[in-house]
Amino acid sequence: MSDVVTVIVGAGPAGVSAALALRRRGSRVHLLDAGGSALRAFPPVGAHLDLRFEDRAQWLWQVGRHGEALAAGSASSPKLRVPGLRDVFAGYANSNRLLSEPGFEVVGALAAGGLSNAWGCGVARFNDDELGPLSSQRTALDRSMAEVALRMGLSGASDDDLANYFGVDDWCAPALPLDSVQQRLWARRQQLSATMPATMKIGRARVAVLSEPRPGRAACDLSGMCLWGCSGRATWSAAFDVERLRADPGVQFEADALVDELQPDPSGGCTLSIVGGGGRRQLRAARVLLAAGTLATTRLVWNALAHKPQHLRLQSNPMAAFLLLLPAALGAARTRSFGLAQLSYTLPCGESDFAFGNLFSTQGLPVSEFLGHLPIGRRGGLPLLRALLPAAVVGNLFLPGRFSAHTLSLTTDGAMRIAPGARADTDETLRKLKRELTRGFRRLGAWMLPGSFIPGAAGADLHYAATLPHAVHPAPHECRLDGEVAG
């Protein structure tokens, strides 16, 4: 057993941010990650519109050797079926001893960079209501968020209805160009600004994507390859910072080091049990920062507590996806476009809560994502989609976490079980929001296609939270305002 001062478990966005902050203070860091050090597999360099016609081996990155892109799971994100991401997601639940009951989707990453290898790059700043007791730390949090935002590189700044909602424009470069379909929506929104319902607000998406180049990273070239992999590194990933940390002599980085148990000791430190490299070993640290993802971190903390609660809550964002058709854009030629969120919107869904969503280009999305939802067979569906998709945009919708009511429990052998749950009014809220979206977008010349509004599986949003909340006077399983678990 060896002794080190600060151990960080997990090399995703939270882990690398903590490591970089500690290094700025001169502290030495031991960074453990359960996955390997390799980045995701990338397709050839080029634009999606060109590669679709010119790359003879496109089936490898679009369908995969094992048919990953055609796998079942239409209620989940298409990025979970991208062949190049297979190794990023594989084995997460089993390795971390996470058991999900039917109806809940567990997704995590065993790879340097964590889920930022495959995220949608959406960014926003917490407001005081969202921060709760942490709002007392607003000055320090704003300073930290500014440092992280400038390191990542954001774009999307715009004087629009959502500038205050996002709260990040001070750190953003201008927005990337809209594709021709969403430009129609945006222009129509500008024309109707005085007559649009005040409840539905639309603005430019704020994303961690470069609109201007940086050393080692190119600006977005509108190739439409965002889902499959940005070879120019315009979309930010924590894996970039892992490379930087590995080159720092003050950082000891270990890949293939899964922490499956930690035990506090009387002296105030912790002993970690690590699996990897063909065996098991122990590591003692005076301070441990857990950044292994919400679910894996919660299981580690829960098993280490002297007084274990019987159950813990888990929140996520109940979600849905839909397809909008702009008849005025039918017959228009496809052009290069950004493949992640271009426009965003909010709708009220309570006294002080808002539902949130984004609009995406259909370019760069596999046709298989849409075929299964058509009321006709594949033979007729393919030519229909070829005609409709260039004039369509994909939307998603997220409800606030309070609409979820998932329950966590520990098994006798220390695994963590996740049972899905939702508030009684969740389905009715989704139906109401669907009606409001249909009316709002129709005023902008877009029609929600019948049958296209599809709720997602519980947990499919991948926004797991609220298990170990911060509190001014924390219970044994809660965190103090500085993030330390009580006791």
Structure commentary:
This protein is an alpha/beta fold. Helix content is 25%, strand content 21%. Helix 1 (13-24) crosses helix 10 (238-246).
Mean pLDDT, nearest integer? Answer: 89
Shape label: globular
- For the termini, the CA-CA separation is 24 Å
Largest sheet, in brief, is: 7 strands, antiparallel
Strand percentage, roughly?
15-25%
SSE-based structural type: alpha/beta
Radius of gyration: 23 Å
Instruction: Summarize the amount of helix as a percent range.
Output: 10-25%
Strand tally is 19
- Which stretches are low in confidence, meaning pLDDT under 50 for 5 or more residues running? none
SS field, number of helical segments = 14
Layout of helices and strands:
Layout: E1 2-9, H1 13-24, E2 29-32, H2 48-54, H3 58-62, H4 86-89, H5 92-95, E3 98-100, H6 128-131, H7 138-152, E4 154-157, H8 163-166, E5 172-174, H9 180-191, E6 201-204, H10 238-246, E7 251-254, E8 258-264, E9 270-276, E10 279-290, H11 294-304, E11 312-314, E12 319-325, E13 343-348, E14 354-361, H12 368-371, H13 378-388, E15 392-398, E16 406-410, E17 416-419, H14 426-443, E18 447-448, E19 454-455
Parallel strand pairs: 1-2, 1-10, 2-7, 3-17, 4-5
Antiparallel strand pairs: 6-13, 8-9, 9-10, 11-16, 12-15, 12-18, 12-19, 13-14, 14-15, 16-17
Short structural description:
Strands 6, 12, 13, 14, 15, 18 and 19 form a 7-stranded antiparallel sheet that branches. It contains 14 helices and 19 strands.
